[in-house]
Design a protein that fits this description.
- The protein is an alpha/beta fold and 302 residues long.
- The chain has two domains: 2-77, Alpha-Beta Plaits, CATH 3.30.70; 88-292, Vaccinia Virus protein VP39 (Rossmann fold, 3-Layer(aba) Sandwich).
- The protein has helices at 13-23, 51-62, 83-86, 133-147, 164-172, 184-196, 227-232, 234-239, 257-270, and strands at residues 2-8, 28-32, 39-45, 74-77, 94-96, 99-103, 118-121, 154-158, 176-181, 202-206, 218-224, 241-253, 275-282, 285-292.
- The strands form three sheets. The protein has a seven-stranded mixed β-sheet, with helices on both faces. Strands 2-3-1-4 form a four-stranded antiparallel β-sheet, with helices on one face.
- Helix 4 packs parallel to helix 5.
- It is globular, with a radius of gyration of 22 Å.
């Protein structure tokens, strides 16, 4: 494949979207960071499409809108792969404390582990292996929370991906778990992974958080989704948590973490709920952990 991209100003994103709707379907898409509003126009083309034809198409559709030199276009060749299988090379077994996450195809190498101390996983095309910092931060947090609280705990997993967080919660002894994702394939893969791990106390459902309603139901709420959705849906996320609860927010770039934190601080403060929060970083990513109500275990004094 040939990938063609050009940076575009945020002022003309709407104009470009209108143009794309008029010519749909096409090879072009707009990708925009909803926090910074930085945007790129990106097109993907078959290998046998000649470069001058790509430029001609670009000129035909966007010349009247964009003030761009064609020399500013970036061309990249993308290697043809079996994308469904290629993820396996990026999913490595790993552990935290005495718990482990193991690719299904490597299970024979870990026959000496207690079945309660590991999760077998085949994520397929769903997000969530634990090798990415956002998921790893969430998994480490739910392990720590369970170690520090042996009471029955309920867990709500927002954006379940491969099911890794919910299945880990079940293996750790979380009592009741509910997991949602707006991607039907993610829900299907999560159910397959739950069956693989003989986990039966997790309910997976396809749900869009925008239309979801939950009232003060869960001890632990995990939302591993992108920053703009966290901000947009902060009321629903907070509504899902009990008064004495923990909320884990991840999928947040370091540069965005204080924007997300401010939105949640304001909403929790507006409700006059006592809380503490702390930020954990790994690489370029962050997790915000909120302790709400009287659930202040293991937090340093303010």
């Amino acid at each position: 494949m040939i990938k063609v991209s050009s940076q575009i100003s945020k002022e003309i994103v709407d104009e470009i979207d209108i143009c794309l709707n008029e010519i749909a379907p096409s090879n072009w898409s707009v990708y925009q960071d909803r926090i910074t509003l930085d945007a790129d126009l990106v097109g993907y083309f078959e290998n046998d499409k000649k470069q001058h034809e790509i430029i001609a198409e670009f000129k035909l559709y966007f010349d009247a809108i964009l003030d761009t030199s064609y020399n500013d276009l970036e061309f990249n060749f993308i290697e043809d792969k079996d994308w469904i299988e290629s993820y396996k090379s990026h999913f490595k077994p790993w552990g935290y404390k005495d718990f482990h996450w193991i690719p299904l195809w490597l299970k024979e190498e870990y026959t000496n582990l207690n079945t309660k101390d590991f999760v077998l996983l085949d994520p397929g095309m769903a997000f969530g292996t634990g090798n990415h910092e956002t998921t790893r931060l969430c998994l480490q947090a739910i392990v720590d929370l369970r170690k520090n609280n042996q009471n029955p705990l309920t867990l709500f997993d927002i954006g379940c991906g491969s099911g890794i967080i919910s299945i880990t919660g079940s293996k750790l002894g979380y009592l009741k778990i509910y997991a949602i994702d707006n991607d039907n394939d993610a829900v299907r893969i999560s159910k397959e992974n739950a069956l693989l791990n003989q986990v039966s106390n997790v309910k997976f459902e396809q749900q869009n958080l925008q239309f979801f309603c939950s009232q003060n139901t869960y001890d632990i709420v995990v939302a591993n989704i992108q920053s703009d959705i966290l901000i947009e849906q902060n009321k629903k996320i907070i509504n899902s948590a009990k008064f004495d609860s923990t909320i884990l927010l991840s999928g947040i770039l370091k540069k965005e973490v204080h924007t997300v934190q401010k939105a949640f601080d304001q909403e929790i403060g507006r409700r006059r709920m006592p809380y503490r929060s702390m930020i954990k970083d790994e690489g370029e990513w962050s997790l915000i952990q909120y302790s709400i109500g009287n659930n202040f275990n293991n937090y340093p004094p303010k």
